[in-house]
Each structure stands twice: as C-alpha cells, then as structure tokens.
Inverse folding.
C-alpha cells in the first residue's frame, strides 16, 4: 500500500512533533509555532517521510484539553509547513481537530483511541477520505493504567484492533485507508509491549499496514539502564533496526537520521 507516493521498499520514518507543554519525551521543547516549524524543517532535512503533529499530550494521567486549545497549537504549524510538501499526520482524538487539520494541509489522521474517544471521528475521517491510523488503547489517559490486564495480550490486541477495523469500515473508511498500531505503552505494562513486539506477525495478519511507536517509551528502560526519555534513544534505534526487515510499514520516532540510517543498514542484511 502506498500513501501519497511514500516508499514501499523500506520501512518509513514518521517524525514526532509534539506542540505541547507536557508530552513525556519532548513536552515543552517545541511548543511555539516557530520552534515547532524549525524542528520540522530539521526533520525534513534528515529525510523524514511523515511529520506527526500533536497538540494534546497522551501520556498516562494527562489532562484533556479543549479542541480550541488543541487547534491553536497545531493549525499554525500545519499551515506553515504545508508549503514544504512534506506529508503531515495529525495526532488527535478529536474529530473537529482532525477535520480542520486536513483543511489546513495535513494528509493523515492518527488517533490513539482509534475513534473511541470521539463518536464523530470515524464518520468524519470517512468523509475526509484520508488515511486513518487506528491505534490500540483502552480507556482514557486517566484510567489506562488500571486496564493493562490481559490473559493473552497479543490475542486481545488483535481482537480489539479487528473490532476497530470493523467499525471504521462500517463508518465508511475504505480498507485502503487503514493503518493499524498496537499502541505500545497504552494500557500496556512493559512485558505486554515486549510480547507484542515479539509477535508482530499476528498484528500484520489482520491485513493492514502496521505502524510501531516505541520511541523513548519507558518499557525500553527494562532492557537497558536508560532512565530519562532522551537516554532511551539508542534502545529505540536498536529496535528500529530489529524490526526493519519484518514487513512493518513504519516507525513513529523522535529523531529521524538515526532511524533512516538503521533502516538503510538493515536493508543490507535482508
Ligand atoms: N504514542 C504516543 C502518541 N501518539 N500515535 C501512534 N500512532 N502510536 C503511538 O505509539 C503513539 C501515538 C505517545 O508518545 P509521544 O508523547 O512521544 O507522542
């Protein structure tokens, strides 16, 4: 599946741009339009495939913000970037923000609730006729910690993602426009994330391109001595290299060049 001419012969790199004061890894770094645009231009220079712009932190326990607040953060950045021709995804749980972001020049909607947070989301995306990233999660940021209980995390995530696919298709989103994400760290303990990463074939078998967002997440500290999010970058790069030849569509990451390089090296090992 090729979206907007994105490469299909290698895993693509989606660069994270959180225009938020409080995201876990980069909160506060790019929360003005100028700093966000400057960071996006750096990512473009480094060969980013998609820039994922978010205005609301999704970290566990984060407070919800209004659509107006969210839009005041992301829309000026999307507008400023639209002249550079880069593919932009909007990371939002709110249908109104998704609609306006696409109007301002974004191309893809990335919803960490896969349409569960806003009852208008699936129908809105169907009307926009754009690609939709449906990520697995359970509950909202306040309650997801207590919902990280599974008998078999792989089976349950596959089942719940398949339900989201059915609802998305029923709402009129076309199969060609669906991308799935197992939602590492969302209602998942560290062991759940590792189990999912060790069984990516099961997620792929649902039949859609798969996006993986492991970047600098806390579970990586289980494998290394890294404590701070920045300190988990090397572990993230290692993971990118290890999954690059597994038929995964893309990785959602904070840095671009190291991941482009890791993917390029992995291609020679295929
Ligand atoms: N993770 C975060 C936010 N949005 N979207 C997708 N599709 N997949 C993810 O894993 C994901 C996401 C949380 O990380 P951040 O605070 O660094 O953006």
């Amino acid at each position: 599946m090729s979206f907007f001419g994105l490469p299909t012969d290698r895993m693509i790199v989606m660069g994270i741009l959180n225009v938020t004061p409080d995201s876990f890894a980069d909160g506060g770094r790019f929360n003005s339009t100028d700093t966000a645009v400057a960071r996006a231009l750096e990512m473009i220079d480094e060969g980013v495939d998609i820039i994922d712009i978010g205005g609301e932190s999704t970290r566990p326990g984060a407070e919800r913000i209004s659509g107006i607040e969210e839009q005041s953060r992301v829309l000026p950045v999307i507008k400023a970037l639209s002249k550079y021709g880069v593919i932009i995804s909007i990371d939002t749980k709110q249908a109104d923000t998704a609609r306006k972001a696409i109007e301002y020049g974004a191309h893809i909607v990335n919803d960490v609730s896969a349409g569960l947070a806003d009852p208008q989301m699936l129908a809105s995306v169907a009307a926009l006729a754009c690609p939709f990233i449906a990520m697995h999660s359970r509950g909202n940021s306040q309650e997801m910690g207590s919902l990280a209980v599974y008998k078999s995390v792989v089976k349950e995530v596959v089942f719940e993602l398949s339900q989201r696919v059915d609802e998305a298709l029923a709402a009129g989103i076309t199969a060609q426009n669906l991308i799935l994400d197992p939602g590492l760290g969302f209602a998942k303990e560290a062991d759940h994330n590792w189990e999912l990463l060790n069984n990516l074939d099961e997620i792929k078998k649902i039949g859609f391109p798969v996006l993986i967002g492991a970047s600098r997440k806390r579970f990586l500290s289980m494998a290394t001595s890294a404590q701070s999010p920045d300190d988990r970058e090397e572990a993230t790069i290692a993971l990118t290299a290890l999954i690059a030849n597994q038929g995964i569509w893309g990785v959602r990451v904070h840095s671009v060049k190291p991941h482009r390089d890791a993917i390029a090296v992995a291609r020679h090992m295929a």
Observations:
- The longest helix spans residues 153-170.
- Strands lie at 12-18, 50-54, 87-91, 108-111, 132-135, 178-181, 211-212, 250-253.
